[in-house]
Backbone:
């Protein structure tokens, strides 16, 4: 056998072996799999939101409210306290509710502020008893197994706010990383 025949034979063997083995690529696939998801009430979820039991301000939060979600209501819930916040004022309510991480990893929690009535009313959420720890511009670090974090609410009514009542929805976000200043 001459050298050219040997090289040609090896080349054919390699090409044939490559064709036999293939690349393993596919164009599409469809497969049915079972996925199980429990929907828990607010206080039993991985990120649990719960009234701050034992706090003087727990009266302003209810869980589960409608849709099994935490509700915050500053409309005098009974005859033992006032009927609401005053005009042209700033109110801070410490420890209205709690957030607890019941998941499997540390999370960073952020709660959006609300600006209502063309910006004349703002509602902010803060960690602990320091209203400068706004959870709109800072992230609250919660490790698994940590004690629940106490969350307060700051309501600021600008003097030009002329409403009898107002409401809005805040968004609670939690992620495994943070791009903001971290409060722990």
Residues:
């Amino acid at each position: 056998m001459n050298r050219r025949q040997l090289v040609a034979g090896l080349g054919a063997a390699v090409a044939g072996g490559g064709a036999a083995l293939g690349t393993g690529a596919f164009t599409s696939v469809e497969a049915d799999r079972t996925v199980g998801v429990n929907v828990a009430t607010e206080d039993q979820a991985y990120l649990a939101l719960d009234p701050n039991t034992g706090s003087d301000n727990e009266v302003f939060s209810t869980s589960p409210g409608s849709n099994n979600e935490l509700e915050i209501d500053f409309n005098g819930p009974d005859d033992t306290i006032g009927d609401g916040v005053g005009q042209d004022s700033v109110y801070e309510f410490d420890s209205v509710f709690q957030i607890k991480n019941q998941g499997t990893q540390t999370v960073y929690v952020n709660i959006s502020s609300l600006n209502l009535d063309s910006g004349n009313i703002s509602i902010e959420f803060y960690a602990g008893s320091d209203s400068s720890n706004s959870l709109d511009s800072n992230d609250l670090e919660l490790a698994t197994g940590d004690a629940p974090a106490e969350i307060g609410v700051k309501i600021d009514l600008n003097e030009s706010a002329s409403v009898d009542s107002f409401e809005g929805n805040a968004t609670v976000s939690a992620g495994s990383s943070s791009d903001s200043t971290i409060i722990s």
User: Anything to note?
Assistant: DSSP finds one helix and eleven strands in the chain. The chain has one domain: 42-183.
